[in-house]
Amino acid sequence: MKGGKLIVFSAPSGSGKTTIVRHLLEQEQLNLAFSVSAASRAPRAHEKDGEDYYFISTEQFKQHIKDGDFLEWEEVYRDNFYGTLKSEVERLWAQGKNVIFDIDVVGGLRIKKKFPDKTLAVFVKIPSVDELKIRLKNRKTESEEKINMRIAKASIEMATAPQFDFIIVNDNLEKALKESEELVAKYITE
Ligand code: 5GP
Asked: Is the entire prediction scored with pTM above 0.85?
């Protein structure tokens, strides 16, 4: 597979990485396109198929695994599968784009390992687990049980931060956005 650079943003759910990725996508000079992942969970109210995710059934997901269609995939939460299709990255590279990923830490590190020379892997750190709890509750998109599942996973994910190229602490969103923009701008011109 040949093509532009790969920019991975990984972090625990609720860290604000999606906000950062959206901001970066608006910066035209960065020439970024979002890698739409396949997911087996149900869409949330505002989510669109083919834009936020390719929403597929667990059976379809497992078939893609069998067929070797994924660059990486992960059962991020029990029975919730997420993965990056090879065809998605090829599609965006064919458009001459740099590809940006909003994926979990394991998937992010896998992409980095597969394409070490063209991947910038950024970890977005939350200030604290308590702060994360507040953010997830305020978001009101998950049940109490799901929030607890995400918080338990966040503590494990935080431990992988040192394996990333850069760590951005999202304690001030403005600052985090600016820092991310500078980081990506520098990397794509290297
Ligand atoms: P959510 O359900 O909140 O949209 O996403 C849950 C988690 O799955 C987030 O950490 C998100 O970054 C991660 N995720 C989304 N797409 C992928 C993917 O293609 N691969 C992997 N490994 N994780 C993903």
From this structure: yes
